[in-house]
């Protein structure tokens, strides 16, 4: 066993050596040291603002939908660990991966039949893009290699996904000009319940028609644009995209990495529109937030198209593809979700968020409050003071991670009504402080 280190020593080493997401070096971030987590609670190694326990309002970046240390998921991980934690996927296969693929095909929109097991959300988007570009090459249309997306989106931190993130003021603005040049439609008009705007629908149709010759695919986050701004839009625009893509020979990709597995009130956000994509990406809640895993699903038409090409293989195969531990836990996490009335739990949280966040509307500096499924957003009219807002939430016993002008929560589905109310109180406290 290595020498035990005190919390102070660990944090000093962290500051000296460790990069954090979107963090500067050296050591200008001040992370909280988490010792363990259980249910919806994170346990800190030392008190911060008088708290050693925090309700996780973030589900570890929207993934831990069943909470931490769930006995069913722990059991799935331990059981698989006793058999094998990893084995290469080239030339070998195993039960957890096969069962997971079958489950995913069973629960995702109908024509999706084939599954690539990626090792993160971003990689699942890379694979989706590769599939689309290769499909058109195989069809003898190599000019079709650009993507169309809408502004305000976010699809990950690797190269192709970065190229379809919001180009103005988004996280990857620095790289515009170096990234592949994609085509951007305006962001969809806001409002999940708003009637689709005919002028905007025409804008989408016109862009797809105009660029059809060079467009491999349209890629969007259905219904919720997450890390690009936590905006909701009418599902009607997904139908517009489907029709226009079909009319002009363009593939349609839905990135359900944030919205998948119930977050918006339907199992997948595409269901709000009754529309199926040609390619779909999932991640985050796929393993209940336990392990890193993504998946890219495609139709038989896409898979057959690629297989007919001069290079009849999809040239992608990460070392940890189909990791047995991750796929075993993912299978258990999906079964767990489906074994419960998850839609009722998400609806219960939605009601709690609507009630609790209504108070934020009266706080000076709050521009808008919006709730959809287990997603609650408070948008300010100014940039959040991250340190002040985080501290204010911690004082209320809640973990939040605001960004830009946004305070938001995506709690685990097991969060009690009392804890939802507590999260809302913390969001309000953060809005007053930040
Ligand atoms: N797409 C969407 C919609 C996401 O929200 C995210 C993660 N925030 C990603 C892709 C990237 O996933 P990962 O962080 O697992 O690479």
Q: What is shown here, in short?
A:
With 434 residues, the chain is α/β, with parallel strands linked by helices. It folds into two domains: 32-63 and 341-432, Aspartate Aminotransferase, domain 1; 73-339, Type I PLP-dependent aspartate aminotransferase-like (Major domain) (Aspartate Aminotransferase, domain 2), CATH 3.40.640.
- Which architecture name of the largest domain does CATH use? 3-Layer(aba) Sandwich
The tally of domains stands at 2
The fourth-level CATH homologous superfamily of the largest domain is Type I PLP-dependent aspartate aminotransferase-like (Major domain)
What is the total tally of β strands? 16
Keywords: Aminotransferase, Biotin biosynthesis, Cytoplasm, Pyridoxal phosphate, S-adenosyl-L-methionine, Transferase
GO molecular function, one term: pyridoxal phosphate binding
Subcellular location: Cytoplasm
Family: Belongs to the class-III pyridoxal-phosphate-dependent aminotransferase family. BioA subfamily.
3D architecture notes:
This protein folds into two domains: 32-63 and 341-432, Aspartate Aminotransferase, domain 1, CATH 3.90.1150; 73-339, Type I PLP-dependent aspartate aminotransferase-like (Major domain) (Aspartate Aminotransferase, domain 2), CATH 3.40.640. Helix content is 36%, strand content 18%. The chain has helices at 7-17, 59-62, 71-83, 95-107, 121-138, 159-163, 198-211, 236-248, 300-307, 324-339, 342-357, 386-395, 417-433, and strands at residues 34-38, 41-48, 51-56, 112-118, 146-150, 183-185, 215-220, 224-225, 231-232, 251-255, 279-282, 294-299, 366-372, 375-380, 398-399, 406-409. The strands form four sheets. A seven-stranded mixed beta sheet has the order 4-12-11-10-7-5-6, sandwiched between helices. The chain has a four-stranded mixed beta sheet with strand order 1-2-3-15. It has a three-stranded antiparallel beta sheet with strand order 13-14-16, with helices on one face. A hairpin with a 5-residue loop joins strand 8 (224-225) and strand 9. The two termini are 43 Å apart. 4'-deoxy-4'-aminopyridoxal-5'-phosphate binds at residues 120-122, 125, 154-156, 221, 226-227, 255, 257-258, 283.
């Amino acid at each position: 066993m290595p020498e035990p280190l005190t919390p102070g020593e660990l944090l000093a080493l962290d500051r000296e050596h460790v990069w954090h997401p979107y963090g500067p070096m050296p050591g200008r971030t001040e992370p909280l040291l988490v010792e363990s987590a259980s249910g919806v609670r994170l346990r800190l190694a030392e008190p911060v603002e008088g708290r050693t326990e925090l309700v996780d309002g973030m589900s570890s970046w929207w993934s831990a939908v069943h909470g931490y240390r769930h006995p069913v998921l722990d059991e799935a991980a331990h059981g698989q660990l006793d058999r094998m934690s990893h084995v290469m996927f080239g030339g070998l296969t195993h039960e957890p991966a096969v069962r997971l693929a079958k489950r995913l095909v069973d629960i995702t929109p109908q024509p999706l039949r084939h599954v690539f097991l990626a090792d993160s959300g971003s990689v699942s988007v890379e694979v989706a893009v590769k599939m689309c570009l290769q499909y058109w090459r195989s069809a003898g249309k190599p000019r079709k290699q650009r993507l169309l997306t809408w502004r305000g989106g976010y699809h990950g931190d690797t190269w192709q996904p970065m190229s379809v993130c919001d180009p103005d003021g988004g996280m990857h603005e620095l790289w515009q000009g170096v990234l592949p040049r994609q085509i951007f439609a305006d962001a969809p008009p806001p409002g999940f319940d708003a009637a689709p705007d005919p002028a905007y629908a025409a804008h989408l149709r016109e862009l797809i028609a105009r660029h059809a010759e060079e467009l491999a695919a349209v890629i969007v986050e259905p219904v919720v644009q997450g890390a690009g701004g936590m905006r909701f839009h009418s599902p009607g625009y997904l139908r517009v995209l489907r029709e226009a893509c079909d009319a002009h020979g363009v593939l349609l990709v839905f990135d359900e990495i944030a919205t998948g597995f119930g977050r918006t009130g339907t199992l997948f956000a595409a269901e709000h529109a009754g529309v199926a994509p040609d390619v779909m990406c999932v991640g985050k809640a796929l393993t209940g937030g336990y392990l890193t895993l993504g998946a890219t699903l495609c139709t038989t038409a896409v898979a057959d198209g690629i297989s007919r090409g001069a290079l009849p293989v999809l040239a992608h195969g990460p070392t940890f593809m189909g990791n047995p531990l991750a796929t075993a836990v993912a299978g258990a996490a999906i079964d767990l979700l489906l074994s419960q009335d998850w839609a009722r739990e998400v609806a219960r949280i939605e009601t709690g968020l609507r009630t609790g966040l209504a108070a934020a509307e009266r706080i000076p500096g709050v521009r808008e409050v919006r709730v959809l499924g287990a997603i609650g957003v408070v948008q300010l009219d100014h940039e959040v003071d991250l340190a002040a807002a985080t501290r204010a939430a911690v004082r209320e016993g809640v973990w939040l991670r605001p960004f830009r002008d946004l305070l938001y929560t995506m709690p685990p589905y097991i969060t009690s009504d009392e804890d939802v109310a507590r999260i809302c109180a913390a969001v309000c406290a953060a809005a007053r402080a930040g």
